[in-house]
Amino acid sequence: MLHLGRAAFLLALGLCASAAPALAVDFSGAWHIDLRTATQRQQKVECGAARFTLSQVGDRVTGEHSVATPGCGRLNEGSTVKGVVVGTTAILAVTSGRNGAIVLGKATRRGSHLHWVTMEELTPGDTQGDSPLILGEGVLSREK
After folding, report:
1. For 66-90, how does the pLDDT look when each residue is reduced to its tens digit (9 = 90+)?
2. How much is the pLDDT for 101?
3. All structural domains of the chain with their residue ranges
4. Angle 110-111-114 (CA atoms, 0-180°, nearest 5)?
5. DSSP states of 36-88 as a string?
6. pLDDT at residue 23 greater than cutoff 90
7. Which range among 6-10, 39-43, 76-80, 133-137 shows the weakest confidence by mean pLDDT?
8. Which pairs with CB-CB distance under 8 Å and at least 24 residues apart come from 9-12?
9. Domain covering 4-142 assigned CATH 2.40.50 in the classification
10. CA 35, 99, 61 angle in degrees (round to 5)?
11. In what helix (H) or strand (E) does residue 98 lie, and over which residues does it extend?
């Protein structure tokens, strides 16, 4: 199991790899992406979205992450998010509410969009349970 010290080290390591300092941007807000296909959207299939709800104070980010597969067959509504911001990038650790897995990811602000990519799994989830159901990658829009 991953210890918090190692997670903090990996977060710091990711921040050190940042190319050039930039003015920090605010990651606060609700960000979403529609995961449904065009056909599913046309058929008005329920669910099928991922969301980050983030709050930033200084260079620290906390919040929640949720995913619901199209048709509402699988849900993950209890994931927690913690991370650090450098310039236009946030390095975030997301802990799955489904099975306890922890992934390290990178969120980059580009205008009104949040570009998310999961970089690696830090701690595997409960092997007897379901998958962590954390967004792998995508471009999320700010909710108004």
Report:
1. 999 999 999 988 899 999 999 899 9
2. 93
3. 4-142
4. 50
5. S-HHHHHTT-S--EEEEEEEEETTEEEEEEEEE-GGGSSEEEEEEEEEEEETT
6. no
7. 6-10
8. 10/104, 10/122, 11/83, 11/84, 11/91, 11/93, 11/104
9. no
10. 70
11. none
Residue 84 pairs in a beta bridge with 60, 91
Whole-number Cα distances in Å, 56 to 14, 17, 75, 132: 18, 21, 25, 24
Smallest CA-to-CA distance from 45 within 71, 69, 15, 80 is with 71
CB 143 within 8 A of CB 31: yes
Q: Cα–Cα distances in Å, from 19 out to 64, 83, 119?
A: 28, 18, 17
- Please state the pTM of the whole predicted model: 0.82
Query: Dihedrals φ, ψ of 20, to 5°?
Result: -140, 145
- Residue 63, beta-bridge partner list: 54, 81
What tokens appear for 79 in the block?
Answer: 């994931």
Kind and range of the H or E run holding 14: helix 4-16
